[in-house]
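Listing S7. Sequence submitted for prediction.
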Amino acid sequence: MITTAHEDSPTLRFDATRDAGLARLAAFAPHAGAAYQARRNYDLTASGAGAVSQLSPWLRHRLISEEEVLTTVLRHHSPQAAMSYVQEVFWRGYFKGWLEQRPSVWSSAQSQQPPLKGAQKTVYAQAVAGETGIACFDHWCESLKRAGYLHNHARMWFASIWIFTLRLPWELGAAFFLQHLRDGDPASNTLSWRWVAGLHTKGKHYLARADNIATFTEGRFFPKGQLVENAAPLEEAQEHPLLPFSPQTADHTAPHILVITEEDCLSGAAPAPSCRGVLGLVSPQASPFAQEAVRNTVKDLGGEAYTDHAWSRTIGDALTQTGVQTALTAHIPVGHVADGMAEAQRRLAQQNQHLIFQTRPYDALVWPHATKGFFKVKKQIPYFLEALNLA
């Protein structure tokens, strides 16, 4: 469950601009070695700040890229010295690639959300209100809703308490996180909840323990006697087949418009000479941070951002106005945006208009290896760094 806050930070401030993300990266990078490794599991402040980078909102929406993060960190540390952090960056790519190749995990979680029964309704209402009586859980719930952020370790504890102590469906917990997190990501969030539950790695779950919480909050919380610490992992009957990932390419030399979504705001250089316009679209589920990220990116590129969700009509109108037939956008991974864009692509095709997706080289490099557990990706990290000219 990756978040990718710095102990110098007294408060959380997340500005949805590329410059803000790069500034946060520059401040964190010198601390990404031994200091990060020693203190990354400690949740010591009311804000969730700690030894972690807090880069996750910018990475989630690709205001900055994984390559930029790795390049900046490895200017300060050798790969060995920063390996704990380097692995966390690749965990994000692992989760993205894994869900991309098993999309039924996402679709089933969205379509089969279990109903609450009897006393569960009361427990759920208490949980989302932060009124369970478990002080640490209630604090994290309030922090999540107020700041849109939780420390990584707190996310794991929260999910475990939700599933095994409160006995609530993991799908509803994952949806609650996606509703409030600035860095809410369909892949990282869904698979992290499933990992805690024992569904991602079958039979291996994560149980929040009072002693562990006391240790890594340095006594701020100690829910002794309040947690279920010996529950069995969850099970499911459904199998999720592997659908190998094939990177997508696009012709940037032909006339086109560029579409920016909350999944990828990394504009990079100016649009190609063949680009006839820039359009920004956000999903109905987009957080305020995501909406601002799209607007700021499109503004920098001289385009227009729309908050309506009639995507095929909006893209089709823009194509008609510019006199071209093709819209290009970065590959959209499994999630709400991909669901909506797939429908837009079908409708545009009926009008002889085309929505084309392009896979970024980093994703094409990492995602195909995410077919089993993280260990397979972990073994490839030296190869990845070499391929990225970072070894």
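Caption to Listing S7: primary sequence and predicted structure tokens for the chain studied. Confidence is low (pLDDT under 50) at residues 1-10. The chain has three domains: 1-101+370-391, 114-216, 256-358.
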